[in-house]
Specification:
The protein is α+β, with helices and mostly antiparallel strands and 471 residues long. Strand 20 and strand 21 form a beta hairpin. Strands 1, 10, 20, 21, 22 and 23 form a six-stranded mixed beta sheet that branches. A six-stranded antiparallel beta sheet has the order 3-8-5-6-7-4, with no helix packed on it. It is elongated, with a radius of gyration of 30 Å. The protein folds into two domains: 341 residues, Alpha-Beta Complex (phage-related protein like fold), CATH 3.90.1690; 115 residues. The chain contains nine helices and 24 strands.
């Protein structure tokens, strides 16, 4: 394997003055160099991808609470073991696990059925028991009688193997007699997710007269390049990178000592948002691979999806350069193993394996290489592992409620603090001095450009994320 040679840190320069910046422009670089550089940089950012796709949400507070609609289908988990029956047709009795108790409510009612799995039944067949009584909390003791008690229709029910604590049972239909009353209502459950906004600021400074100097012909969208335009482009790139970093690897600030004193005397914590990767690490599911990637790991993804009730059949697999290489090599090995001597390119297409897509076990994975994961000045720095990492995001929209409005939203968005006439999506302002450019606002011979964004990474149903890392 070729040894990677990492670049040394770039030379740092200060303000946009002639000494530091004019020589850069005199390099007479090939036409289009800066334009292509900017396009490459912008295209690799989450920030721009979400913005361009309008995956955005206007926020009215810097600590928004979004109510996620949870699954309407439920199971029930045993809080204690179910003992072996004394005889065929005996009822089962068990407490409900505290995991299934939400604000004093439970997902099962009297007259609901539950399915006792075959491995615990004497007949080796699944059997239905009907709930006839539920005790008070906190235990919520359930008593359930079997439908097949004496074997008149099918072999009778009998628990012959102890059912362990924590067994998850399916809730099955419901069963009533003629002339009886209707059951109590069931609850719909919502989960409250809290988010925090982050304030991101970027500045570029110019000495007076710099734009009056001759600048050489390096193409740009606005014609002949000037210091002002070059500085504006660099400010935009810097600002986007800072936003992108927050969206991906941001953390909440819970350090009470990490504060700043405001211009008007307040003492406020530095605002920070939680990024996509940390949402996945905190509440998502891990998928660790040993050595290189193998096709079998794609099959594991479906099991992880099913565990979180994911119904989407498409997923974005954002990943680093080394992991992508490993996946492509495993795909080629798999095709070679099973192609039977046929044309490999045709086999790849028929098997759903292409450069950017892999269809395995009914799920179409869109492979999206994150250039920042391979950039040695970003997450591709050899100190980190992100080149070997990835994150799988199920595609689709989630039902959620914000400010009392029920809507379908993508599972990954940017939230901007835009409210009451103040739009903090991207503020760009120029503070000009006595430079001859415009009406002076200060007594210094300088100009300064400022950019500010206040935003939050909004990740709906983060428990469905899958983080991929080497063991």
């Amino acid at each position: 394997m070729a040894a990677a040679t990492y670049p040394t840190p770039l030379q740092r320069v200060g303000a946009y003055n002639e000494a530091n910046w004019r020589p850069l422009m005199e390099l007479r670089l090939d036409p289009g160099y800066f334009l292509e550089t900017f396009r490459y940089g912008l295209g690799s950012y989450y920030f721009d991808w979400l913005d361009m796709a309008e995956r955005t949400l206007d926020l009215t507070t810097d600590n928004p609470k979004i109510y996620e609609a949870l699954e309407w289908e439920n199971t029930i988990k045993t809080g204690e073991a179910i003992a072996v029956s004394g005889a065929a047709g005996d009822p089962v009795v068990f407490d409900i696990s505290s995991d299934d108790v939400t604000s004093g409510t439970i997902p099962i009612k009297v007259s609901d059925g539950i399915v006792i799995p075959a491995q615990y039944q004497a007949t080796g067949e699944d059997r239905i028991y009907v709930v006839t009584a539920i005790g008070a909390g906190p235990g919520y003791e359930v008593t359930a009688e079997p439908l097949s008690a004496d074997g008149n229709t099918i072999t009778e029910s009998e628990v012959s193997v102890e059912i362990p604590t924590g067994t998850v049972l399916k809730i099955h239909s419901n069963y009533f007699s003629r002339g009886t009353e209707l059951p109590d209502g069931k609850y719909n459950y919502r989960l409250i997710r809290e988010y925090e906004t982050q304030i991101i600021k970027t500045t570029r400074q110019f000495e007076g007269g710099i734009n009056a100097l001759k600048w050489y012909e390096i193409p740009s969208d606005v014609g002949r390049t000037q210091a002002w335009f070059e500085g504006q482009d660099m400010l935009e790139l810097d600002h986007r990178k800072a936003c992108d970093d927050a969206l991906f690897l941001g953390e909440i600030n819970d350090n009470t000592a990490l504060v700043q004193t405001s211009h008007v005397g307040g003492s406020n914590g530095r605002k920070a948002t939680k990024g996509l990767w940390n949402w996945g690490k905190e509440v998502g599911q891990p998928l660790d691979y040993a050595g290189g990637w193998d096709m079998s790991y794609f099959y594991d993804v479906k099991d992880l999806f099913l565990a979180k009730n994911v119904v989407a059949r498409e997923a974005m697999f954002a990943l680093g350069t080394d992991l992508l290489r490993s996946i492509e090599e495993s795909n080629l090995d798999w095709i070679r193993e099973y192609s039977g001597g046929s044309n490999l390119m045709r086999s790849a297409d028929e098997l759903g394996i292409e450069t950017s897509r892999v269809k395995v076990n009914g799920i179409l994975f869109q492979l999206h290489e994150l250039m920042s994961f391979g950039n040695p000045l970003r997450y591709g720095n050899q100190t980190y592992n992100f080149s070997k990492n990835g994150i799988i995001i199920p595609e689709g929209q989630e039902r959620s409620s914000y400010l009392g409005k029920e809507e379908l939203h993508p599972n990954f968005m940017i939230g901007y603090l835009n409210n009451n006439g103040e739009n903090r999506r991207k503020i760009i302002n120029v503070l000009d001095g006595t430079t001859g450019r415009s009406t002076p606002t200060s007594r210094f011979d300088t100009s300064e450009t400022y950019a500010l964004t206040e935003m939050a990474a909004i990740v709906l149903r983060p428990e469905q994320l899958i983080t991929v890392e080497p063991e």
